[in-house]
Specification:
Layout lengths: L10 H14 L11 E2 L2 E2 L20 H10 L7 E5 L5 H10 L2 E6 L2 H13 L6 E5 L12 E4 L3 H14 L5 E5 L10 E6 L10 E8 L6 E9 L2 E12 L2 E8 L2 E4 L1 E6 L2 E8 L4 E10 L2 E9 L4 E13 L20
Helix pairs in contact: 2-3
Amino acid sequence: MAPRPGFPVTARESQEWVDSMKSTFTVLRGAVGVVVMAGFSLVNATVAAQDFGDTPYVQTPQNVVERMLQVARVGPADYVIDLGSGDGRMVITAAQKYGARGFGVDLDRRLVELANKRAASAGVGDRAAFYERDLYETDLTDASVVTIYLLPEVNLMVRPRLLATLKPGTRVVTHDYDMGEWRPDEQMVMDAPDKPVGRDKKSKVYYWVVPANAAGKWRWELTVAGKPAVFDLSLAQNFQDISGSVRVEGGDWRLENARLQGEEISFMLNDAGSKTRYEFSGHLAGQGIVGSVRVSSASAQRQLEWNAVRTELALPAHALLKKPTLQELQLVQ
């Protein structure tokens, strides 16, 4: 693979760059993450391939691998794609322990060959495959789970593609580094006694569910005070965070406890005048929402069907963010 924009492009320049990087920056290629510096591989550059001694890679400890798969709730129906698969332990464990299928990609041919041999030895070669492939050119559309151990700059480069191409509801789990402004749905710090880097022997695990596009305007009808009323919802979205208000009979009600996870949406409305609370929960399907609403007042409670139609499509705020560009790494001496 040729170096990406912003990096040396001749063999001599590349070799000089590699030599300088060795003395100032530790390059990681985890078993769950490819050795990349903002998308540049030291192994498959225009320079001659380095041996393992020159390009050390960090294996994700097995207990962290298993925790990542647990957090992602991997099961037999899942298809796991591992970006930067190293020795293949993530997809192999997903196949062995949870019955999942999937594949991993890495730029190092030797690691790809090793991973395929390990999958065959483990008896899961029919469910776990590995390819020498650029992660930016990998088709992710079949994934229900994506696992990642990349450098933070690369996470930010990959993030727009994850949000644009993965199906809503796809789970994403990363090791040690987050996704910038994309707030994780879950995060934790765990002991990693076998971790070959770091003094505290700890690992961070981050988890997200890819959100559907709920931004825009929605409309539905419900009975309010004994007569039909039209509800007009204006919904703003940034990643999985949503907010907005509903206009009903000339009044505006703010959304409370609004939540979006994948294609599942829920929120509450309070009508202060009639002291009635509406609790909505539903599933986004195309340009509609199908679900139910629980209506609670001082005198009674009832549950009704909820069917909303999108009347105006909008883009979530995160879709308008400027795509990160490759920058020269600032090396810390």
